Amino acid sequence: MTRSLHDRIVAELTAARERTTLLTDAVDDSDLVRQHSPLMSPLVWDLAHIANQEELWLLRAVGGRDAMYPQIDPLYDAFEHPRSQRPTLPLLPPDQARAYGREVRGRVLDLLERTPLSGVSSGGLLADGFAFGMVAQHEAQHDETMLITHQLRKGSPVLSAAPPGPPPADAIRLPAEVLVPGGPFTMGTSSDPWALDNERPAHTVDVPGFSIDTTPVTCGQYQEFVADGGYRDPRWWTQAGWDYVSRNRLEAPLYWERAGGGQWVRRVFGRQEPVSPAEPVLHVSWYEADAYARWAGRRLPTEAEWEKAARFDPRTGLSRRFPWGDADAAPGLANLGQRYLRPAPAGSYPDGAAPCGARQLIGDVWEWTSSDFLPYPGFTAWPYKEYSEVFFGPEYKVLRGGSFAVSTVACRGTFRNWDYPIRRQIFSGFRTARDASLGLVADRSSLCAGTWHTWVRPPRCGRC
Ligand SMILES: [Fe+2]
Asked: 385 C-alpha vs ligand 1 centroid, how far in Å?
């Protein structure tokens, strides 16, 4: 067990570093030090920040070593300098940032080789290799952040990947929504060894019955909202959402543009392409997701509903680690790890479906929920309160499930992400829900493609 834990740590650290290297070697040094958007750091900041956190938590906190370069610590403290100011800092240039990362990693692997992970008391940094797992997750999360920067970056494309395959043949016959019966379930975890503090502890939540979309809302569905004047009708928006879209004159998801003939196109990692109706919609804010749901006569799921749909197995009464069971994610189960640079078509990954029948709950797009980011009952900040605790409150909304950009090490059924409701540059989409007590619905196969929600709205089907 100990040997396999060592091996797993090495594999996860190595996988994260390979992705970091690919994302930062893809551009030249002038691109690395440039700020591509005030929303993001220059890529070279991420590069050295990853190394600095690895040094801080593994070499210093676990290994008891002194700081290698104490003068650079403040530069890479995310709380000291907002992203917009980071280009003005005396950051390590690209060659030194890379060398720092290599130096830290070499010492970390040496430390790991000499650190026994068996017989370690529970609850500490070394229990189940937690600190190593936390650092691997941290780098993987920055790999997602850096991919967001790549998407914001102007200029010729530097990243490419094959597209995901077509959806399975049964995708068109899937029901529009699936029912999750009411009752208690176990939310969160007290046993997943690398789960972060905000996922803990496991606790029972009684969730009334609800129905949830079988797949994330697609671009085709979202286009109907746009075409129906959804962005111009305050009925669908909260006051804050309406103020936001009005002030910023939004009329579609981020990166969408109208081409000749009124067709929607979008920019994907530097390439323009037609909007794909079958793909889950991406780059929408919480306000947009919430407005769409209201337009569709539905609502966003709560965080507890999302997790129950993803994890609850009614046959055993237990909560799984993932929709498909307790086994780790694999390529046939979910679209994770930047293997593709886009979500897979709605209805993909039947082997990764949850017991309730919902698909793509893990991977593809982060899914906005209606819930504020709050601590679970019994929460304890660990190992530092700046990971989660300082963010708890109503200003952040929870996203679940991970996107195509998320590594398998930083994604599980209990994983919680959070962001401001205005955020659109993240790889965010959503699915909708409704109370189970609200009437019957039609089957998706009886409706025209792209009108899957019209049974709760006046019937309109202009595309058939
Ligand atoms: Fe970080």
From this structure: 14
pLDDT value at position 440? 52
- For 230-242, what is each residue's pLDDT tens digit? 999 999 999 999 9
- Percentage of residues in the chain having pLDDT higher than 70: 94
CA nearest neighbour of 309 among 213, 373, 375, 377 = 213
User: By C-alpha distance, which of 266, 246, 269 is closest to 256?
Assistant: 266
Q: What's the distance, CA 314 to chain centroid?
A: 26
**CB–CB of 363/346 below 8 Å?**
no
| Contact status, residue 343 vs residue 282, Cβ threshold 8 Å | yes
Rg over CA atoms, the chain: 22
Across the chain, mean pLDDT equals 93
348 CA to middle of ligand 1, Å? Answer: 32
Any idea which of 263-272, 316-325, 451-460 has the lowest mean pLDDT? 451-460
Question: Cα(206) to centroid of ligand 1, in Å?
Answer: 34
pLDDT given for residue 439 in this prediction: 59
Distance 441 CA to ligand 1 centre (A): 44
pLDDT score for 120 = 84
Q: 237, 212, 197: which is closest to 304 by C-alpha?
A: 212
Å from CA of 49 to ligand 1 middle = 7
